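=== Per-residue structure ===
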Amino acid sequence: MKSVPLSSLESVRKYLFENGKKGRIKYSKISQTEDVVTYNFGLHIPHEKEGYGFSLILFESGTVELFFSKGTYQGRMSDTFYKEYNRKAERQPIEQCDMYRLTINTLAYLRCFPECVEDGVPG
C-alpha cells in the first residue's frame, strides 16, 4: 500500500470542513478549548471479515488527526507524524501510515464520486 500516494490534504481539509460536525474540544489539563470539525465513517470492503471504523478530527491549526479501528487493531495518526513515520521500517508505523493513506484517499474518493457510496450496512 506504500506505493499508493497520499491524496491532497488541502482538498480533504476542505471536504472535512464542509461535511464534518463542528464542535469544540476542551483540554482539561491546560484549561483551553479549540474549535474542531469531526467526521466519522465506516468502510466495508467486500470479502473481508472485518470492517474499518474511522474518526477524523480537523483542528483549527489545520492538523488532520485520525483514530481508526479494524477488528481489535486500533491506532492513531496525524498528518504531522505521517511523513516521519512513513520513512520507518518498523511494522507498527507502516500499518499506521497505511491506515492514514487509506482513510485520506477514501475521503478524496468520496469527494469526487459521492454517487458511488452507499449509506448503511451492506446487504
